[in-house]
């Protein structure tokens, strides 16, 4: 059996991230891990989170790190000073404090280069959401990074299951029809959540892994 593991919003919470990686590597000996973005801001140690993700996996694992709206805000803040106040007021100050000053160029480059979406045989992974009225290839960056679903909303998502974070709730992870939200509000006193998928079977998660902050 082959697995894909999808991890929700981390927001600078390095200890839950380290514990989650350990849990995943206990669950299976290999597989794909999709990180859904928002690695930085608000939490205590964004630098350590990026250091860990940039270092990559050990052994036969594949890691895919998507871009979240907070990475996008950080990159924009360093590219244009007019964008800086928005980022700082949304947790950027905590991020810069974890670096004892400015975020280095190599971390900005890595954050800026993250893809917005990962699609496999049965699933679509994005940070925030998609608009099903438009083809998948025509989704906008704004929607992929910022969209929020009304409670209970689902669609057919082009015959695939949609996996996302971005909209935190202490009651997550929750699967609603063909959609699973795994942002469990780790940085807000919740937990870091991971959805487990069987790569050979269509549909939603077969399991969840949860780590308390």
UniProtKB/TrEMBL annotation:
GO biological process: RNA decapping
Stretches assigned to the Calcineurin-like phosphoesterase domain: 6-178
Segments forming a coiled coil: none
InterPro entries, per database record: Ap4A_hydrolase (IPR050126), Calcineurin-like_PHP (IPR004843), Metallo-depent_PP-like (IPR029052)
CC per GO annotation: cytoplasm
Keyword Hydrolase carried by entry: yes
CDD domains: MPP_PPP_family (cd00144)
MF term (GO), any: phosphatase activity
Enzyme Commission number(s): 3.1.-.-
Record-linked Pfam families: Metallophos
Keywords: Hydrolase
PANTHER family from the UniProt entry: METALLOPHOSPHOESTERASE (PTHR42850), ZINC-DEPENDENT ENDOPOLYPHOSPHATASE (PTHR42850:SF4)
Name of this protein: Metallophosphoesterase family protein
Organism per entry: Rhizobium redzepovicii
């Amino acid at each position: 059996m082959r697995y894909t593991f999808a991890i929700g919003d981390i927001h600078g919470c390095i200890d839950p991230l380290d514990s989650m990686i350990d849990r995943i590597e206990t669950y299976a000996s290999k597989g794909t891990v999709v990180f859904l973005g928002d690695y930085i801001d608000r939490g205590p140690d964004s630098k350590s989170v990026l250091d860990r993700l940039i270092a990559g996996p050990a052994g036969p694992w594949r890691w895919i790190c998507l871009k979240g709206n907070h990475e996008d805000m950080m990159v924009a803040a360093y590219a244009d000073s007019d964008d800086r106040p928005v980022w700082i007021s949304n947790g950027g100050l905590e991020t810069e404090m974890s670096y004892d000053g400015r975020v280095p160029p190599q971390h900005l480059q890595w954050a800026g280069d993250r893809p917005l979406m990962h699609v496999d045989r049965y699933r679509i992974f994005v940070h925030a959401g998609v608009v099903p009225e438009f083809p998948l290839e025509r989704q906008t960056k704004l929607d992929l990074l910022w969209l929020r679903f009304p409670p209970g909303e689902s669609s057919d998502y082009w015959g695939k299951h949609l996996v996302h974070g971005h909209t935190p709730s202490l009651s997550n992870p929750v699967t609603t029809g063909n959609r699973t939200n795994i942002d469990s509000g780790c940085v807000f006193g919740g937990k870091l959540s991971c959805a487990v998928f069987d790569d050979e079977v269509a549909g939603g998660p077969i399991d969840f892994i949860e780590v308390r902050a």
